[in-house]
Amino acid sequence: MALTRKQDRLPSVPKSPRPRNTVSLSLDATEGFRDRYFKCQCHLYYWMLYNSRFRVRYGDHLIFTTPLSGTFYYVLRYRKQHVAFVIEARQAWMIGFCTKNGFFQVQSHDIEGLYMDSMQTKILPFSGNHKSISPSGAGSTIANIYAVRRLFDVMSNYSGPSHHHDSPELASLFGSAVVLLMEAKAWEIFMTHCNVMEGLFDEMLGGWAKRIINNWSAASQQLLYSVGDSDFLPHDCGIIQLNNIEDLLDVFIYLHVDGCFTRMFQHEPMDPEPRKLSWEQIDEGIGDGDIIVLKEPGPRFTGPSTSGVLRKRVTPDTRETIEERKKKKPKGLIGGGLGGEPAAPEVFMQWIKAHNDKQRCIDLFAFLDSLGLTVLDSKRQPANWPLWRLGDPEAKQKADCLKTEELNKDGNGKDDGMQKEELNAMANEIGDPASTSSTVKPDLSIRTKRGLRLSELASLEAGKHVSDGVINFLIQQYSEELLGKGIHDTVLIDSDTSFFLSQGNTTGAMEMCSNRIVIFPINSNEESYNPGGPSLWSVLVLDKWTKHGPRFIHYDSSGGANVPFAKQLATILNPFVPQGTSFFEGSIHEQLDSSDCGLYFVAVARLICRWRASSELSKEDWDSDLQSKTSTKKIAKFRKAIYCGLREHEETVPNNVRRQMNQYSNEIASLENGQFIDDGLINLIFEQCSQELVNNGINDVILADANVTFLFNNGNTAGALELCSNSLVIFPVNNNEELNRAGGGTHWSILVLDKLTNDGPRFVHHDSSGGANSPFAFRLADKLQPFVPPGTYFVEGETPQQINSFDCGIYAIAITKSICQWRTNRALGDDQDWSGYVWTAVNAETTTNLRLALHQELQQLQITDE
């Protein structure tokens, strides 16, 4: 008899053994680290699920809580050393860590005595709350392998509290470990960590992450009471992005067991503080992360002396036996081997990967049943149950009143154009009321302080097609508005990224499509060498927010002319969206002027962003406003408002003055000691070096722009043939792989295409951090292989090494300057390469001086520009 599809997908195994309460995550290899991190986190989650007393099925959702007791040991391995983080399971609380130097526990008023029950335990000089270990806020935590290695290095060498030797970073690095390993119990944080864990880009989690971290216990309470009591009215925990129970279910992987003590979650609460708690031993089994510590002291013997030395007599009433003292003696870290390979079942990991996939949930329920693990049924029937606003129980009534007022306003029979006040507000919203207009000659090559050319502003005049620059500027502005309101699940994709996605380059697509609403500009241009070419614009929206989703909805004001391009992009993105995501055409006014398509895109994108920012109004979706806000008259006035906002409130500067005073702020800030170098600074220095070479009559050396290098490394090699025709090409290499974050990444290095010296043709990679960027440099060289001479090879160049974690950018600049200096001074027939120049000119002292000199130079340039 043939197996059913369901049986095919489930592992044919008997009861699986209980997962061990320890796992090891290796930091040694950068490649594959994301996968190792994912599997280790799944092991921790599965251990929680297996040992949880409460597992509940709510429709196709699985809800489970932390165990009522237990300890988990999460081991990091790096360079044959180990750091084991100790996690108190009931509260999902990282309470300390173990190394070869001993045991270290955070301060706590909740626990009487030591949780890490050893004579070798030392108390850390800080507590475990986020105010102590994340002074800049949990949302400011940066996640990537280099950040993890940094915290590992500090903790593995830590030997105990000392006024002279304590690292000032210890508390914040411990806080980073908490966020990286424990706060990833939130789906969004976990997926963010997975996307950046190979050092792909340097991104903070943001305010949304901070809120859900701080509200874990409150959200656990609301969900547990909701599924256990059908009459319970849940609230939104103060998180305005949550509108219904489904939203709340999408936040956390597991819940705090003490969020609820009644009904189906009936259990005894924890003892009052300070409570007696102690770690549990490591489960039996072989590990790979044994922590070598001093031997536990033996018990004092209080009986008669056996060495002839008199001891003080102890009266029978106070005498203690050796057995009694053994019971009191701290037991140390005992049990099986610490650490080990992750062992979460494949069916569980697939459930984690395909979050909210119905079939994966069914498979997991069947698997748990085969193990004899009880899953209870929810007391509340699945439905789109609303959450009331915490602190504002009348929010729904207010929203209904507001909606009625809007309907009355639109239905009063008057002209549907914008009122003067609305027009002025829109202009001020786009512009800057504090700035003053200037009277310069209408040179269309002049740039405004926002980076727009006057020719781009001129594209907003009546009858003209809106330029890509204006569209991308407005996309950026609406994105910043969303972030400013703490909204991180709605994303606007810039036109270049959308174009490259449509060409099949899906780097970063998974992260983009993990958001609830994604807005893509669709362009009919098919010329890969000219992504900004003339074309028609439309809007494609990935909607996983409303009850109509998941869906792709396409708005095309040109009568469906862009449908093939929208369907092409939707097809390319299909592997990254939930199964069953549909595609259909949305209803929108058709434009009367063929040049208005770009404005329709901007108007629709703006409307959806504003709808998302006010989604507590409980509208089904944004369609109710779309027709009234995109009429011909409103689009005409919208064009005028944008033009006024950008034209009248901008100061313009000549092309030879690169930026206005406040426009160097990012570069100057990145030159402060201890800061990572900004992408803009890399490009600025490369521009300066290029100009110096040209001034010296050298035209065969090219310094590639950082953004161009980024696109090359992601497969878009338009222009590569011309670039690689030069004798020497210097590429700034960054470890960012997210296509929608061209300014990301955490490490810089230099790749040189050398066709000038006798050792060429070759690619030479200079990395000041021990080859950390080697995979990215090699990939870039491989992408450029079709455009370089046959036999061109890749080699790691000997490079001075930085002595900290943040100087990679300044080393990259110093190495580039040295190569340019070598080329300038190179005598005819000199076949030696630049390595001697690099080793002479680049070291810790010279890079420090270079950072200071560049800082002073940019500050002076600001004053000059002013």
Summarize it:
The chain is of the alpha/beta class. It is 37% helix and 12% strand.
Layout: helices, strands, pairs:
Elements: H1 5-9, E1 22-26, H2 33-51, E2 55-58, E3 61-64, E4 71-78, E5 81-88, E6 93-99, E7 102-107, E8 121-127, H3 130-133, H4 145-157, H5 170-182, H6 187-196, H7 207-214, H8 216-228, H9 245-249, H10 322-328, H11 346-353, H12 358-370, E9 376-377, H13 395-410, H14 420-430, E10 447-448, H15 454-458, H16 468-484, E11 490-492, H17 495-502, H18 509-513, E12 517-523, E13 537-543, E14 551-555, H19 563-573, E15 582-585, H20 597-613, H21 623-629, H22 632-647, E16 652-653, H23 665-670, H24 679-695, E17 701-703, H25 706-713, H26 720-723, E18 728-734, E19 748-754, E20 762-766, H27 774-783, E21 793-796, H28 808-825, H29 835-841, H30 844-865
Parallel strand pairs: 1-4, 2-9, 7-8, 11-12, 14-15, 17-18, 20-21
Antiparallel strand pairs: 2-3, 4-5, 5-6, 6-7, 10-16, 12-13, 13-14, 18-19, 19-20
Low-confidence stretches: 1-15, 299-320, 395-423, 431-450, 527-534, 649-662
Q: What does the main sheet amount to?
A: 6 strands, mixed
- Could you say how many structural domains there are in total? 3
Taking all Cα atoms into account, the compactness measure Rg is 31 Å
What is the CATH domain class of the largest domain?
A: Alpha Beta
E-strand count: 21
Helix amount: 25-40%
CATH arch. level architecture of the largest domain: 3-Layer(aba) Sandwich
Descriptors for this entry?
6-stranded mixed sheet, globular, 866 residues, Ricin (A subunit), domain 1, single chain, Adenoviral Proteinase, Chain
